[in-house]
Amino acid sequence: MSRPIEAASNVKIIPAMSSEELKQAKYRQTRVAAYCRVSTDHEEQANSYKVQIDYYTNLINSNSEWTMAGIYADEGISGTQTKNRKEFNKMIRKCRQKKIDLVLCKSISRFARNTVDCLEYIRELRLLGIGVIFEKENINTLAMNSEFIISLYGSFAQAESESISKNVSWGIEKSFKEGKVKYVMDKTLGYRMGEDGKPYIVEEEAEIVRRIYRMFLDGLSMQRIADIMQAEGAARRSGCTTWNRSNVNYILKNEKYAGDAILQKSYTIDCITHKRVKNNGEKNKYILHDCHPAIIDRDTYNRTQQELTRRCTIKQRSDKAVTAQGRYASKYALTDIMICGECGTPYRRVVWNSHGKKLPVWRCINRLDHGNRYCKHSPSLNEEHLQQAIIDAINTAYTHNTAFLQSMENNISIVLNDEDKNNTERVRIESRLAEIDKARDDLIHLVTSGSVGEDSLDKEFEALNDEESYLKTQLEAMKSQTEKRDEVRYSIMSAVEGIGEMENTMVDYDEVAVRKMIECIKVLSKTEILIIFKGGYECNAVVEK
After folding, report:
1. Total H helices, total E strands in the chain
2. How are beta strands 338-340 and 518-523 bridged, if at all?
3. What are the residue boundaries of the Resolvase/invertase-type recombinase catalytic domain, all occurrences included (predicted)?
4. What is the number of other CB atoms lying within 10 angstroms of the CB of residue 396?
């Protein structure tokens, strides 16, 4: 005897029909229901409501292959939310109970004004084998092929998206022109609201903000910055002198400090209840640049955002690495930039006891954690000798300033040239996507007007959908390339700035200068390292034994 199979909690079982039910279904008439809805604010509309009921009653009863399965009519109820439409929900329950085979409706807008509801119910009814005929649009959802459905659904969703986008954009633009942008500055250190309703800078607090940005770009971690602020008794916006990592993070990521404002950080998910949720990319956001005085200049703010991204993505320093690095640590610059030339894993600072004295050295993490399992020949480097080799390399770049700057200029030219090509291609792709949208709308119009059957256009729909998918993938790739170019640009600027700030050759090792100028240090042997400056300039340095 076989054991019964239990369904998972998220599985809904649709019972199989008995042989008698299958026999009856094969020869019985099609059970047809109609759904109609009309507002009853006026007597004329009330008459229309009665006319619809009479119309569908006569239509169903006059077809010998159909049998009446009910007229479901909601009177004077908005169509924006299906839960308020009792008759509609009753009809859907009957469909789920397999008591209806076909639904008639005057138009899509009568069935549901909310696109999501409309698509969800159409999909569910199709899975149940139940079609919906929209008379105005000349659509039978059960008869449509898959490619046409994809195109039709895309058209619905696109139309709603464009409508919302236009309304929101217009409202934002209108409010901004009228000076009605609502600033929220009650938690923003460095700003207060003026009598004119616009923010102004509180210089004493603004200097704290600027210092936080400087320390972060100099390589300090958020926690270290918070510790310094608290030790110095610096006051936050609330007046509290207790600082933590989150307080610093909020300041570093706040676009208001660059003079900008981001609108639609949250959005309404229900136009009836007005419930709002955080916008994590589901909707467009609108950035208003230079709409109030900036505390942080644009270049510093952009470099900070790049550095935030870089620190969050620190894992493996090279493709060779087989083990990952942990969270960004700011105490030693080399922890973040020095890698093993053999296995690609970062180096770590350790302290050895040598003849009763403590000797700091740098060692490949693979060798420290796994012996010679992954890395067999990486050397340990004396910290003092390593730092002197780095000082020598920086001084070489400083004394050969012309060659260094020429290398940076060449790299900037390459970046700008790639950017121009990228922009041209992006414009071409966006133009073609607009053409695809129009072509698809034209095909949908041909089908819904009855001029041609959707089967004959299946290949055209498929080709348009495939091309659209390919072009959107290209756009995403171009966006990623743009972000990488920005990183290169800021790296070059950082290296040039570091060399430019040097008044003379470096004598003592400087953690801040190393972070600012050097992208990577690759350990080649016990006596040689390769130093790669930000922007691409490279030089080899000798490490004393």
Report:
1. 16, 18
2. parallel
3. 31-179
4. 16
Rounded to a whole number, what is the distance in angstroms from the first to the last CA of the chain? 79
Please say whether the beta carbons of 529 and 387 come within 8 A.
Answer: no
For the whole model, what pTM was predicted?
A: 0.49
Q: Are residues 216 and 252 in contact, defined by beta-carbon separation less than 8 angstroms?
A: yes
Give the SS3 label for residue 85. Answer: coil
Pairing outcome for strands 357-364 and 347-354: antiparallel
Amino acid at 70: G
Q: Are the C-beta atoms of 347 and 375 separated by less than 8 Å?
A: no
Cβ atoms of residues 258 and 238 within 8 Å: no
Q: Across-strand partners of 359?
A: 352
Q: What is the DSSP letter of 346?
A: B
Structure tokens at 424: 């041209």
- Select from 157, 95, 134 the least CA-distant residue to 440: 157
Is 285 within 8 Å of 262 (Cβ atoms)? yes
- List alpha helices for 237-315, DSSP H: 245-253, 298-312
Mean pLDDT value of segment 89-115: 86
* 278 bridge partner residues: 266
The pLDDT confidence band at residue 462, using thresholds 50, 70 and 90, is: confident
Say which residues have a Cβ less than 8 Å from residue 59's Cβ, sequence separation at least 6: 34, 104
Closest CA to 527 of 345, 409, 388: 388
Residue type at 369 in one-letter notation: D
pLDDT in tens, 119-137: 788 888 988 989 999 888 7
- By CB neighbour count within 10 A (0-12 exposed, 13-18 middle, 19+ buried), where does 476 fall? exposed
Going 457 to 460 to 464 to 469, the CA torsion angle's sign is: positive
Nearest to 37 by CA among 97, 85, 94, 89: 85
d(CA 473, CA 477) in angstroms, rounded, equals 6
Domains and CATH numbers, the chain: 20-143 (3.40.50.1390), 191-259+294-309 (3.90.1750.20), 398-542 (no CATH)
